Amino acid sequence: MNKKVKWGLIVFIVVALVCWGVYSQMPKQNEELSQADKVDKGGESKKKTLNVNALRVKKGEITDEIMVTGTLLPDEEVDLSFETSGQVVEIMFKEGAHVKRGQLLARVNDKKLKAELQRLLAQLKLANDRVYRQRTLLQHDAVSQEAYEQVKTELATLQADIDVVKAQIEMTELRAPFDGVIGLRQISVGAYASPTTVVTKLTRFVPLKVEFAVPERYARDIKPGTALDFTVDGFLETFPAKVYAKEAEIDVATRTLTVRALYANKNALLTPGRYASINLKKEEIKDAIAIPAEAVVPEMGKDKVFLYKSGKAQPVELKLGLRTESQVQVLKGLNVGDTLITSGTLQLRTGLPVVLDKVE
After folding, report:
1. What distance in Å separates the CA atoms of residue 183 and residue 95, rounded to the nearest whole number?
2. Does pTM surpass 0.85?
């Protein structure tokens, strides 16, 4: 190969490389963009169609709820004991039985007190007669006023002594302080009882109290009258109750607020001490437009949804209100009867053709 041919070949290669570099830097036609341009200019290509589910917008109830746990407490409960010491001579209740307020349940030996009462009652007639005679004599100026006042004082003292003995006899009797159910008895007839001896327990569980605690951030939302539902193991139904009281301050150890609600328990179906799963209704709005939370698309600090209109997806900006775990309240942006797209929200674009698979 001579020098001319050799140098000619080198020049050709250099020119070819330069041309290739220039070509590679030149803009090229994008096939996808060309396809989109054809669509915009009325070409034959069509946008992809998306199958979605939808919901007819309507008004309904939305409730903000808190799930907590609690315990069922009796309305009233007390350990029953005698007010005085003595030997138990009679027990007049059956364990587990219903009793009425004031019903006699048990008593200790009161023979000595009753004998003392009889002695005082015997003296009472004589004291009354003495006062009568002294009053008659005083009317005829036969005795002094002082003598008459003395017998009156003796009568009043005797009457006071009688009242004291009667009160002591009452202390030997154990009576029900309220209507309720008697528990298991802890003593037997013949046992010596004192005021520290527990005879049995009396419980009233119609109605029932429901005690629970809520985190401190909800403290202002809970007030008397707040409604709740609760469930207990072994029952399929839910039971309604209403808050009637709460503690005055937050527990500094747990940072929770203790609350109590009241459940009627009219048929005495539930018993105290049971564990309860509580659904607390913080706020209820009866006539609201509520939509599924997953239908809302946050974008640039705004909330929007897509509506189905004439076979296409159209975005609408919303103003939202109350939020729950599954729903949000729409204050502005939707009207009753709108068809809200609830699935495929991340794939939706303005004007995208959609097909409704299911409309609820």
Report:
1. 6
2. no
Helix (H, G, I), strand (E, B) or coil at 141: coil
Cis upstream peptide for 207 (omega within 30°):
yes
Query: Tokens representing 170?
Result: 């009452």
Question: 339 — alpha (psi -120 to 50), left (phi > 0) or beta?
Answer: beta
Which of 209, 211, 205 has its CA nearest to residue 267? 205
- What does DSSP assign to residue 44? S
User: Residue 27 gets which letter from DSSP?
Assistant: -
Q: How many CB atoms lie within 10 A of CB 266?
A: 8
Question: Residue 42: its pLDDT value, please?
Answer: 45
What pLDDT band is residue 168 in, cutting at 50, 70 and 90?
Answer: very high
Long-range contacts of 225-231 (CB under 8 A, 24+ apart): 226/261, 226/280, 226/281, 226/282, 227/281, 227/284, 228/261, 228/278, 228/279, 228/280, 228/281, 229/278, 229/279, 229/281, 230/70, 230/263, 230/276, 230/277, 230/278, 230/279, 231/276, 231/277
Residues counted in the chain: 360
**Helical residues (DSSP H) of the chain, grouped into ranges:** 3-25, 31-40, 111-139, 145-171
Residues 6+ apart with CB under 8 A from 137: 143, 148
